[in-house]
UniProtKB/TrEMBL annotation, chain A:
Source taxonomy: Bacteria, Pseudomonadati, Pseudomonadota, Gammaproteobacteria, Lysobacterales
Pfam families: zf-HC2
Keyword flag Zinc: yes
Organism of origin: Frateuria terrea
Name by which UniProt lists this protein: Putative zinc-finger
UniProt entry tagged with the keyword Zinc: yes
Source organism superkingdom: Bacteria
Keywords in alphabetical order: Metal-binding, Zinc, Zinc-finger
Extent of the signal sequence: none
Putative zinc-finger domain location: 7-41
A GO molecular-function descriptor: zinc ion binding
From TrEMBL, chain B:
Classification via InterPro entries: RNA_pol_sigma-70-like, RNA_pol_sigma-70_dom, RNA_pol_sigma70_r2, RNA_pol_sigma70_r4_t2, RNA_pol_sigma_r2, RNA_pol_sigma_r3/r4-like, WH-like_DNA-bd_sf
Single GO biological process annotation from the record: DNA-templated transcription initiation
The organism's place on the tree of life at top rank: Bacteria
Every RNA polymerase sigma-70 region domain range: 30-96
Originating organism: Frateuria terrea
Region listing for Disordered, in residue ranges: 98-119
Compositionally skewed regions (Basic and acidic residues) per UniProt: 106-119
Keywords for the protein's UniProt record, in alphabetical order: Sigma factor, Transcription, Transcription regulation
Transmembrane segments: none
Family from the record: Belongs to the sigma-70 factor family. ECF subfamily.
Domain RNA polymerase sigma factor 70 region 4 type: 124-175
Entry protein name: RNA polymerase sigma-70 factor, ECF subfamily
Keyword Signal assigned: no
Length: 204, 194
């Protein structure tokens, strides 16, 4: 629940009227409103009392002359040379970060060692790496330059062949027969569009 | 800013110019003219006289060093109160934020010097201010005690005007609900805020 708009406006105006910085219009408006509104009148009385209390001189009893003497003496002191601060971060923060880095380094080391020991030879090979040793029963095949990709794929499917390497510098692919069929070499040699088909063991 | 404020600010600017030229007499005049209001302002942050004096001297040591670089974007009083506020916060961090509590030595001194009505008024105020946060106490002091505008307070506290408004609003609501009760009045009809 909120006060009516006129009371809210009075609430806003009170500090500045008390300061003497409100406009004459605001001053007059507030005076008229207070004459009609008991709640705001009570509020204004409390605000006046607050201002009066805050205007009382400080009760800490400091001697300005003694303080000034100390300030003047301080001006005559050589300026302290500040030691270069190593870092803005607090010592606790620095230590926590150092510990976190150390833990990460140890973790990475352990992980790397495990990977190296568990998997000395990678299970995959990129085409840029040197050719893997020939698989038993592999065949080197050089298709004709005019052979269409669709015909090549159809031939591979028909003979159940899989490309395991190539093409190399002379355009040769290495194929293996999934089914291990013995007459694959003959079928390849007889196939249209195949310029050469030789067992891989004979041509390492 | 009224004519008196303008005159005061002109005087303060002249003193700053003399300080920039190394005139310690100007520093002494400025120090004495601000000592009372800084004492009262800083007493809203801490009750320790030694800390208050330390902050006042830190403030004027900085004013002495920076007098030549005062750009004049604000009144000198706003500039000095801003320095004092930041020095005060730094002192609070170093010494801990002592609550506003009456210490016996101060009570004796106050009782000896205050007329009864002032004493009652101080107690009434102290019990209200202790319910406020440091920032709320500062805003209340700067607006009601020193007489700064919202814009001035925003410069002093280095925050948006909206933040100052909010701090003043909530401080007034708290005081409104607390102070009448301490004066023996009912607060049951004062729970609403505009």
């Amino acid at each position: 629940m909120t006060l009516p708009n006129r009371c809210a406006r009075a609430w806003e105006a009170m500090p500045w009227v008390l300061q003497g910085t409100a406009t004459p219009q605001d001053n007059e408006w507030l005076t008229q409103h207070l004459a009609q509104c008991e709640a705001c009148r009570t509020e204004f009385e409390q605000q006046s009392r607050l201002r009066l209390a805050l205007s009382l001189p400080a009760d800490v009893g400091l001697d300005p002359n003694a303080g000034l003497d100390r300030l003047m003496a301080r001006l005559d002191e050589p300026e302290p040379v500040e030691a270069p601060q190593p870092a803005r971060a607090s010592p606790w923060l620095s230590r926590a970060l150092a510990v976190a880095v150390l833990v990460q380094a140890i973790g990475i080391g352990i992980l790397g060692a495990r990977l190296w020991s568990e998997n000395p030879a990678p299970a995959y090979r990129t085409l840029s790496q040197e050719a893997a040793p020939a698989v038993r029963g592999a065949i080197h095949v050089v298709p004709d330059a005019t052979m269409k990709l669709a015909d090549w794929n159809a031939l591979l499917r028909r003979l159940d062949l899989q490309v395991v390497d190539g093409p190399n510098d002379v355009g040769a692919y290495t194929l293996v027969a999934r089914s291990g069929a013995q007459d694959t070499l003959e079928h390849l040699r007889a196939a249209q569009g195949i310029r050469l088909a030789e067992p891989a063991e004979d041509h390492p | 800013m009224n004519d008196a404020d303008t005159h005061d600010d002109d005087t303060d600017r002249m003193l700053l110019q003399r300080m920039a030229a190394g005139d310690r007499g100007a520093l002494a005049v400025l120090y004495r003219s601000y000592h009372g209001r800084l004492c009262r302002f800083l007493s809203r942050l801490t009750r320790r006289p030694d800390v208050i004096e330390e902050v006042i001297n830190d403030c004027f040591w900085i004013a002495w060093q920076k007098a030549g670089s005062f750009r004049g974007d604000s009144r000198v009083s706003t500039w000095i109160m801003g320095i004092a506020y930041r020095c005060g916060l730094k002192a609070l961090r170093q010494h801990g934020a002592e609550p506003i509590e009456d210490d016996p030595v101060r009570d004796e001194r106050s009782s000896a010097h205050d007329p009864g009505e002032d004493r009652e008024l101080r107690d009434w105020l102290a019990k209200g201010l202790e319910r406020l946060s440091v920032d709320q106490r500062v805003v209340v002091e700067l607006v009601y005690g020193v007489g700064h505008s919202l814009d001035d307070v925003a410069v002093i506290m280095q925050c948006p005007v909206g933040t100052v408004k909010a701090r003043l609003f909530y401080a007034r609501v708290k005081l409104r609900n607390v102070l009448p009760a301490l004066a023996g009045e009912s607060i049951s009809h004062r729970e609403n805020v505009p």
